[in-house]
Amino acid sequence: MTESKINALVSPEGSLEILSAHEVGRLKDRSEGGLYRLFRQCALAVLNTGVETDDCKSLMEAHSDFDVRLVPQPRGLKLELINAPAHAFVDGQLLRAIREHLFSVLRDIVYTHSIPQTIAGFRRDNPEDITNLVFHILRNARVLEPGRQPDMAVCWGGHSIGQDEYQYSKEVGHQLGLRGLSIITGCGPGAMKGPMKGATIGHAKQRVKNGRYVGITEPAIIGAEAPNPIVNELVILPDIEKRLEAFVRCGHGVIVFPGGVGTAEEILYLLGILLHPDNSDLPFPVVFTGTKENAEYFDMIDKFIRNALGDEAANKYEIIIDDPVRVAQVMRDGIKDVETFRRAMQDAYYFNWMLKIDPVFQMPFEPNHTNMRALELHRDQPKHMIAANLRKAFSGIVAGNVKENGIRQVQEKGPFEIAGDPTLIKPLEAMLEQFVAQNRMKLPGSSAYRPSYRIVSSAA
């Protein structure tokens, strides 16, 4: 049975209604330098909210007849959707949440590609310019609220999780919502959706009218992790490095639920930053949490971190098993410490300017066979550099698993090869095997996982 499709003309919803002739031209441009293909891909992902898939390439192929066109209006513009998935509509009307997300995609793609030309002297390899770009994108999306007290709990975790883990993440979100905290996630399903859904109930019980459910994503991953409908503020950053920087700059603490390689990448990014000497006195609460059945999972993660980065890294987080109330209390108290510190240092509540991020965590890593094979996975370097290179290894595996370009490279040339010091590589291989065994690499019910990586004995 073929899926029904709908043609529709959609009015703006959100913060972008007008475009310049130049911006319209770039969005219509189907050449390599144009934005049409990128916009179409992200728009299709948004329209597939709630669909159980994590394969961006397959999604694009399944909807090869989908198109989106800009229709200029006297007072702005509309979007014409052609062969759009019918499940995005109710009685012929596009769901309001999806309409908001659609115009958020339009807003961020246009802005991200225009701002480097408008900032005098902007350099893509300059750390300050990269942080300023992240700030400008978040400000343009109206995510930064100057008058608001710190209340943003970042929740990371897998999109491929079982029902028990999902329910636990939802209960943690509920407890956070009861304490007036808002949620930032990667905006997708699983452990990204659960905390938001739980927080909506907690906020409703406490009559919190301005609860925030911020979803932060990037073009290469949005097809694999389509925004869940709870997200009421969606932001698309240009790449994974800027996405991760956005999390730690506008979040006030981090909760990590069980996940796969994407979650491991996020953990290593965060710990690598917190291990930088300049950040040693910076309060930033981090909690790893899950059900009783997840205790072994976090024991594995903890051992991997201690082996690779030492006990100092492990001191940056607290592991709490099967206790949503305690998780929420620790996060609330930790965020109060953040507020006290920011006030004393006269730093903004809405954007963590004081956090030092080494350029190695900011420069985009291009996952390809050459770069993956050349990763410096050895111990003869500072701890935060070990974290940075392990982060890149996980980033490459994520690309090979779910990103269109990464999937294509693995199909054409075989798995990415990862090599290095056996004392780092062997534990890495063991952890990846556990991710596969626990079905954390792909969504349940999808085709059998075929590894996008291959561990080789040494970098020699």
From TrEMBL:
The species this protein was found in: Marinobacter persicus
Q: Which reaction does it catalyse?
A: AMP + H2O = D-ribose 5-phosphate + adenine
Instruction: Give the first-level EC class, as a single word.
Output: hydrolase
* Coiled coil regions, renumbered to chain: none
One Gene Ontology term of the molecular function aspect = AMP nucleosidase activity
Query: Source organism lineage?
Result: Bacteria, Pseudomonadati, Pseudomonadota, Gammaproteobacteria, Pseudomonadales
Record's PANTHER family?
CYTOKININ RIBOSIDE 5'-MONOPHOSPHATE PHOSPHORIBOHYDROLASE, PYRIMIDINE_PURINE NUCLEOTIDE 5'-MONOPHOSPHATE NUCLEOSIDASE
EC number(s): the record gives 3.2.2.4
Annotated Pyrimidine/purine nucleotide 5'-monophosphate nucleosidase C-terminal domain ranges read: 335-456
Domain of life of the organism in this record? Bacteria
> Can you name this protein?
AMP nucleosidase
- InterPro entries hit by this protein: LOG_fam, LOG_family_nucleotidases, PpnN, PpnN-like_sf, PpnN_C, PpnN_N
Domain (Pyrimidine/purine nucleotide 5'-monophosphate nucleosidase N-terminal): give its ranges: 9-113
Name a single GO cellular component: cytosol
